[in-house]
Amino acid sequence: MLDNLGKNPLGGLSVNVATILKFPLVLILFGNVLFAALLFLRSRILADTFESSSIGIVKAIITIYLITTIIGSIIAVLFLLVG
Amino acid sequence: MENITLRNDHSFKSFPKGLKFHGQEQEEQVILIIRSHWIIYVPQILLAILVLVLPWVLGAIAPVIFKSVAIFLSLLITSLLSGTSILVSAIVKWYYNVDMITDQRVVDLDFPNIMAHTMSETQLEHIEDVTQKQLGLLGSIFDVGTVYIQTAGSNQNIEFTNIPRPRDVQEILSDLLESKESGEI
After folding, report:
1. Residue A19 covered by a domain
2. Which among B65, B102, B110, B184 is least buried, having the fewest CB atoms inside 10 angstroms?
3. How many other C-beta atoms can be found within 10 angstroms of the C-beta atom of residue B36?
């Protein structure tokens, strides 16, 4: 017992920060995609309620945002799997 | 009312063209459309910038993140997407948080969050009192305030929150009510 006094009891356990970071990143990416999809759907409902001359720009922004979010999230998850 | 066309901008537009809203009558004319002042969205813009620089802040705290290129790129994409989400949500909120004054009624479309939106309206003849309130230093500097429209009976009161030029809005509404009472419109 006295021989083990100088040893670290958690010597075999190593914590990798990068691994810990992966799970919250996946959650945030999933949240982003969900948010983008909900925003897209809500904007379609709101477009029936209110429409002005600049609605085309807003619709384009939301559509580009949704597509970018989906593609970006897929790429980010692939990077996480590789890393 | 003639002077309201002089200082039009994206948040305060008189006699807008190509505007339609749910329940609009065929001959109903929109006199004024008001959106929240841009100053209200400054905290969201600052938050988006903070999220965009977060990968470098995290990298400074835990340099191990920089060691794995894949993890760092993933973190970078996540922060870019999150920052964009905040900015796009601010743009959509600004666009759909809209208050309208027509020659027949006032309409208040609120889009507080992604899960809900409300549309309230009241006819001009139901309006009893119009009050405007400017609060704080920002309100005085940027001429931002809230206009409270009190209605008769059980009708819901309407608030035009954080709008630019609240005194002008109050004046326009008072002029409209006078015109309505005198039978001009």
Report:
1. no
2. B184
3. 19
Q: What digits encode the pLDDT tens for the residues A38-58?
A: 999 999 999 888 888 889 999
* Total domains present in chain A: 1
Residues of A in contact with B55 (CB under 8 A): none
The boundaries of the domain holding residue A72 are: 33-83
In whole angstroms, give the CA distance from residue B98 to residue B120.
11
Q: What is the pTM of this model?
A: 0.85
CATH topology of domain B2-36+97-182: PH-domain like (2.30.29)
Give residue A12's pLDDT. Answer: 54
* A20 in a structural domain: no
Tell me the residues of A at the B interface, defined by beta carbons under 8 Å apart.
16-18, 21-22, 25, 28-29, 32, 35-36, 38-39, 42-43, 45-46, 48-54, 58, 61-62, 65, 68-69, 72-73, 75-77, 79-80, 82-83
ipTM: 0.84
Q: How far apart are CA B114 and CA A36, in angstroms?
A: 10
Helix (H, G, I), strand (E, B) or coil at B84: helix
Question: Is A83 in contact with B68 (Cβ distance < 8 A)?
Answer: yes
